[in-house]
């Protein structure tokens, strides 16, 4: 993808602080980190988002992410991290090349997760049933 910023990072056209590379995966530091050490793990093949990424590439991303996350914790001295995927514009995806965020976390870092809502009576069971049906169709 010629105009993709992450493809340009893979090719070396755009510089990055690389922390891991194998034949399928590249990882580098996010330029605007939630916390120092915030890392992006991407497939070397261009896919627009998580949902359109092949199972094989996702397996490689997950296995590499586990190894990289352990290294981030050792390097930062923290004990926790978030592994996050923003899939689609409404979910906050800005760069249309699949990427996992590994965000090291520590007490008082100020990063906030979602605020949970309540289901109406019966809504959870109804929604669960609908999702289960579509999962079983695939
Ligand atoms: P998204 O919102 O798509 O899930 O996350 C995209 C991430 O890519 C953002 O956290 C942003 O800071 C990071 N990013 C965007 N452009 C560049 C870049 O040119 N270099 C690096 N290292 N990170 C980038
Ligand atoms: Zn790309």
Count of discrete structural domains: 1
Judged by helices, strands and strand pairing, the structural class is: alpha+beta
Percent helix, as a range, is 25-40%
Question: What is the radius of gyration?
Answer: 17 Å
**In the CATH hierarchy, what is the superfamily?**
HIT-like
Strand content: 15-25%
Indicate the CATH class.
Answer: Alpha Beta
Average pLDDT works out at 97
Give the CATH topology. HIT family, subunit A
The residue ranges in which pLDDT falls below 50 over 5 or more consecutive positions are none
Q: Which compounds are bound in this model?
A: guanosine-5'-monophosphate, zinc ion
H/E element sequence: HEEEHEEH
Morphology call = globular
Output the number of helix runs.
3
Describe this structure in words.
The protein is of the alpha+beta class and about 140 residues long. The chain has a single domain (about 5-135), classed as 2-Layer Sandwich (HIT family, subunit A), CATH 3.30.428.10. It contains 3 helices and 5 strands. The protein has helices at about 5-10, 55-75, 125-135, and strands at about 20, 25-30, 40-45, 80-85, 100-105. The protein has a 5-stranded antiparallel β-sheet with strand order 1-2-3-5-4, with helices on one face. The radius of gyration is 17 Å and the shape is globular. The relative contact order is 0.16. The model has no long low-confidence stretch (mean pLDDT about 95).
Topology (SSEs and partners):
Layout: H1 5-11, E1 18-21, E2 25-29, E3 39-43, H2 55-76, E4 80-84, E5 100-105, H3 123-137
Antiparallel strand pairs: 1-2, 2-3, 3-5, 4-5
The chain binds guanosine-5'-monophosphate and zinc ion.
The site of guanosine-5'-monophosphate has 14 residues, from strand 2.
């Amino acid at each position: 993808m010629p105009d993709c910023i992450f493809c340009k990072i893979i090719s070396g056209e755009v510089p990055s602080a690389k922390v891991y590379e194998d034949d399928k995966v590249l990882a580098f530091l996010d330029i605007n980190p939630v916390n120092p050490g915030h890392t992006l793990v991407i497939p070397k093949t261009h896919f627009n988002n998580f949902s359109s990424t092949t199972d094989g590439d996702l397996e490689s991303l997950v296995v590499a992410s586990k190894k990289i996350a352990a290294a981030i914790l050792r390097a930062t001295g923290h004990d926790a991290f978030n592994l996050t995927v923003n899939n689609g514009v409404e979910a906050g995806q800005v760069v249309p090349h699949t990427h996992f965020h590994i965000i090291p976390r520590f007490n008082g870092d100020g990063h906030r997760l979602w605020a949970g809502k309540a289901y109406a009576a019966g809504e959870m069971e109804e929604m669960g049933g609908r999702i289960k049906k579509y999962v079983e169709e695939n």
